[in-house]
């Protein structure tokens, strides 16, 4: 009888110890889960904060692009109006008003369709073609597999590169030159935008710029580089820009090629 009571006590003690161990284990699991949830919450807050900072910087850069771009267009209008007749100046102003409307509409969005961006770019090139008195040729080529109405890119992404090609590559050639924009899509779902000019090349352009009394700052290029870096940070993408110097068969400078690759 006594032995049975002792065995029952031992079983009760073992059961109590087992319950205590289970409770302790459960408490540890709850504490671990709470700690993990807190870490996730802090990480989410940090990510949200970094995203909002990046969005604020992106908005600031877009707001800086607009006056810079408009200022350059107004300068073109002023010079063209002085040198040409009122009918052509009126045509120039009409294109300018359409261009500004597109620029302002695009700047409200973080992304626009490729068709929208190319339409804006064509208007800009038309204005520069008029200003250069037909010495500038501009062509846009879109491969059949690129859906320009579906694919989206940051607004005013291409214009600074085209502007740079015109002002630093072609303006130093008395006979003028050509700028081509080509859109294609790779099998890796990469949108490739290639901007090619047959200007004097970066080295010669830098030499001429250093000798010039007025140095035209590549403000748009700087803003575009910063925007691409922010886009990569904000959307965890890997948009890449590569600039190549072109040479002819004799190894002489024959222009510049800018290749922009954007994950779709």
Automatic annotation (TrEMBL):
Any transmembrane segments, and where?
Answer: none
SUPFAM superfamilies found in the cross-reference section: ATPase domain of HSP90 chaperone/DNA topoisomerase II/histidine kinase
Q: Which Gene3D superfamilies match?
A: Histidine kinase-like ATPase, C-terminal domain
| Pfam families hit by this protein | His_kinase
Where the record annotates domain Signal transduction histidine kinase internal region, the positions are 56-136
- The protein, known as: Signal transduction histidine kinase internal region domain-containing protein
């Amino acid at each position: 009888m006594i032995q049975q009571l002792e065995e029952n006590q031992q079983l009760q003690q073992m059961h109590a110890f087992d319950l205590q161990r289970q409770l302790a284990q459960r408490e540890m699991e709850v504490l671990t889960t709470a700690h993990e949830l807190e870490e996730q919450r802090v990480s989410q807050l940090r990510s949200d904060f970094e995203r909002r900072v990046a969005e604020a910087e992106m908005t600031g850069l877009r707001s800086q692009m607009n006056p810079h771009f408009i200022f350059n267009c107004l300068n073109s209008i002023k010079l063209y109006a002085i040198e040409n007749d009122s009918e052509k100046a009126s045509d120039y102003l009409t294109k300018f008003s359409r261009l500004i409307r597109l620029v302002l509409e695009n700047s409200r969005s973080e992304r626009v369709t490729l068709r929208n961006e190319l339409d804006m770019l064509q208007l800009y090139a038309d204005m520069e073609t008029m200003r250069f008195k037909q010495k500038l040729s501009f062509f846009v080529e879109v491969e059949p597999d690129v859906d320009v109405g579906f694919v989206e890119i940051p607004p005013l992404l291409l214009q600074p590169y085209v502007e740079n090609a015109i002002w630093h590559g072609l303006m130093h050639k008395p006979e003028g030159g050509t700028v081509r924009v080509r859109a294609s899509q790779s099998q890796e779902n990469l949108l490739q935008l290639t901007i090619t000019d047959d200007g004097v090349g970066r080295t010669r352009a830098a030499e001429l710029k250093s000798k010039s009394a007025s140095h035209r700052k590549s403000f748009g290029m700087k803003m575009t580089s910063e925007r691409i870096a922010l886009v990569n940070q904000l959307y965890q993408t890997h948009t890449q820009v590569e600039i190549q110097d072109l040479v002819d068969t004799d190894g002489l400078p024959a222009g510049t090629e800018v290749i922009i690759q954007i994950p779709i």
